[in-house]
Design goal:
The protein is of the alpha+beta class and 186 residues long. It is built from 5 helices and 8 strands.
């Protein structure tokens, strides 16, 4: 019995668990006002209904790379990564950090406050964005050599990215089922 689907976080936003074991690179679809506690919601293509809600430090990083007009960020890409050392209330709870950004001149770094009187350097890589990758092609290429865990994780991301394209989503499901049958029969 495959239990991987039972550990997917159910949430209305991205959480540390989403990027704990693998980074997410996505295109920004919209930037909108949030609430008092989380004032910025960044919607990413392929992740409808689950915005990235950057911390104050990560908002400083985004502004440092792209400027303070959030609407100008639409269409740009970023890579989000999990950092287990992020603390809240003195306890390491893990957090999401911006690892790379497209549309910046070069790699850059900022000094960010991590606790009262303590600052650390946060490095951001220049994200080279080539042509847009077709999620179905990406999944198809990787499914051939994937183990069951990789197949499940890849299918989960692909089906989210293809949520608005039922024809391609059906093909991805067909590829998933074929490869899963191969793996379970082996």
């Amino acid at each position: 019995m495959d239990l991987s689907q039972t550990i997917i976080p159910r949430s209305d936003q991205f959480n540390f668990e989403d990027v704990q074991s693998s980074n997410i690179t996505a295109v920004i679809k919209s930037v909108r006002a949030g609430n008092k506690e989380q004032p910025v919601f960044i919607d990413l293509e392929g992740y409808d209904g689950r915005p990235y809600k950057p911390s104050k430090s990560m908002r400083r990083v985004l502004i440092g790379g792209w400027g303070n007009d959030g609407h100008a960020w639409v269409g740009k890409s970023l890579t989000l990564a999990g950092d287990a050392s992020v603390r809240f209330g003195g306890v390491a709870v893990g957090g999401i950090k911006v690892k790379a950004m497209s549309d910046v001149e070069d790699n850059f770094s900022l000094m960010l406050t991590v606790s009262r009187g303590k600052r650390v350097e946060h490095r951001v890589e220049k994200l080279l964005v080539s042509q847009k990758v077709d999620p179905l092609q990406w999944f198809s290429d990787r499914a051939v050599n994937a183990n069951l865990e990789q197949l499940d994780r890849g299918y989960e991301r692909t089906s989210a990215a293809l949520a608005n394209d039922p024809e391609k989503a059906a093909k991805a499901l067909e590829i998933y089922n074929l490869r899963k049958s191969e793996l379970e029969g082996a």
